[in-house]
Amino acid sequence: MSDYIVDHPILKFERGKKVKFYFEGKEIEGYEDQPIAAALHAAGIRVLSYSEKLGRPRGFFCAVGKCSSCLMEVDGRGNVMVCMEPLRAGIHVRRQKGRGKV
Amino acid sequence: MKHLFSENDIDICVVGGGPAGLEAAIVATELGAKVLIIDDNPVLGGQLIKQTHKFFGSKAHYCGVRGIDIARVLAGKAVELGISVMNNATVVGYYDDDVLGVLHDDTLSAVKAKRYVIATGASENMLAFDNADLPGVYGAGAVQTIMNVYGVMPGNRAVVIGSGNIGLIVPYQLLQAGVEVAAIVEIMDRVGGYHVHAAKIKRSGVPVFLKHTITAAQGKDRVEAAVISKVGDDYTCLTGTERTIDCDIILIAIGLSPLCDLLYHAGCRIDYIPELGGNVPYHDENMMTSRSNVYVCGDLACIEEASTAMLEGRIAGARAYESLYGKTNDAGAVADEAAHELGVIRKSPFEARIVSGKKRLGALPACD
Q1: How many helices (H) and strands (E) does chain A have?
Q2: 20 to 30 A from A93, CA-CA: which of B20, B66, B155, B360?
């Protein structure tokens, strides 16, 4: 399932190549070069991480690389700001629990 | 740390490639300076790239043109002029000896220029309420980004908190994308934004709850509803007036805060002026900060509009150039014209707050 805007009265969207990548080990699709957070949102995924102390679910907030609410684990690397990080084919994206590995 | 550029390479380094920074870079380059723009996005244009509405402002400065198209024009000019641009690069520090630390491709490098024009913009304010951290509680600008830049449906049914211009424009854009807007919630007794935006919302039939605020988001691991409550004259919630509105996204549109971090690093004077958005860098009418090699413009200097940000950018670019090469007729004309147009825009009653804030800061004379 993916939720993209098809008809818009003003905008025409140019999307990159359709690629496959992995979220929590499961294969899903997105468009190359779009931010990982946008691909996940379109795939219906809202929870990007869990807070350190209480394990509360967290999503993005600003979507423009300012708030650090969207830090995830990408290919084993922690604290990746997925609202800014472009999607690449075959990457493994996981929800970060608390502080990410550095 | 690798030194990418020194002051022999760069006259003026502009941090932030939004409307203010781009205008500053364009003006300074046209006057003859060697300019570098550093921006953390893949494309230039800042937040203009998600603005589908048409702008007001003077005819000379894009009145009636959509933000997305202004971004294209400005970015095109920057390319045409051959301005050096570092994309996907974040300035993470302003160090001693006036060196910038720039993070690009996981590598930290140093950049030094003779003058800096800082145009980092602002970030969206958060609001405290129960479950405010639930996924689905988003900045209104964030929703605009994923919807208008990336074409992603942000949700099915939205509740918007705040009715300033962003709180009025974004719901309209949600409707254009096919998202239902359940309510706009405003704590004041009147709508905050321009009449023209408010009228569009009124015609669209979206209910506006005045003298209301949000008290909670509900849902297990994503937003399923918003609880709003009426407020009294002292802005406290009135018990028994709560109502629950089903929605899957809650947009926070209650204002922005200037991104001052680099100015703190640089040791620039920062003043707290609520009318301008909170902590803002001191600047004079030439957009120079308390340090003579650092200029500011746009939302960093005060939370205002893209049209005024562009004019401030033109002043900053021209004055930074003059501070290096001496006063010239061309530079003076650019800055004077921009200052004149700013004065015209700021005569509007909507701008009274800004003018009073700029006077308190010392960026405008205390009396006319």
Answers
A1: 1, 8
A2: B155
Name the average pLDDT for chain B: 96
B 95-134 residues with CB below 8 A of A? Answer: 123-124, 126, 133-134
In angstroms, the CA B223 to CA B248 distance is 5
Q: Which residues of A touch B259 (CB under 8 A)?
A: 66
A→B interface, C-beta within 8 Å: 3-5, 8-11, 13, 15, 33-35, 37-38, 41-42, 46-48, 51, 56-67, 83-84, 86
Contact B319, B117 (CB under 8 A): no
- Of chain B, the end-to-end C-alpha distance in Å amounts to 50
Tokens of residue B197, six digits? 């935006």
- All residues of chain B having their beta carbon less than 8 Å from the beta carbon of residue A58 are 133, 135
Tell me the two tokens of residue B3: 């030194």
Instruction: Reduce the DSSP state of residue B76 to 3 states and report it.
Output: helix
Instruction: Inspect the interface and report whether the beta carbons of A37 and B146 lie closer than 8 Å.
Output: yes
Q: Would you call A57 and B178 a contact, using CB atoms and an 8 Å cutoff?
A: no
Separation between Cα atoms, residue B18 and residue A100, nearest integer Å: 31
Residue range B242-276, pLDDT digits in tens: 999 999 999 999 999 999 999 999 999 999 999 99
Q: Would you say the pTM of this structure is higher than 0.90?
A: yes
Predicted pLDDT of residue B57 = 65
d(CA B19, CA B232): 40
Instruction: Give the Cα separation of A95 and A73 in Å (integer).
Output: 6
Q: In angstroms, what separates the C-alpha of A89 from chain B's closest C-alpha? A: 18
Q: Could you give the C-alpha distances from B285 to B146, B316, B335, B361, B363, in angstroms and in order?
A: 36, 9, 10, 10, 5
Burial of B61 (0-12, 13-18, 19+ CB in 10 A): buried
Q: Between B123, B152, B221, which is nearest A4 by CB?
A: B152
Confidence band for B97, pLDDT divided at 50, 70 and 90: very high
Distance from the A65 Cα atom to the nearest Cα atom in chain B, whole angstroms: 8
**pLDDT surpassing 60 at residue A1:** no
Sign of CA dihedral B283, B288, B289, B291: negative
Residue pairs between chains A and B whose CB atoms are closer than 8 Å: 97
Interface test with B, best of A36, A54, A66 (most B CBs within 10 A): A66
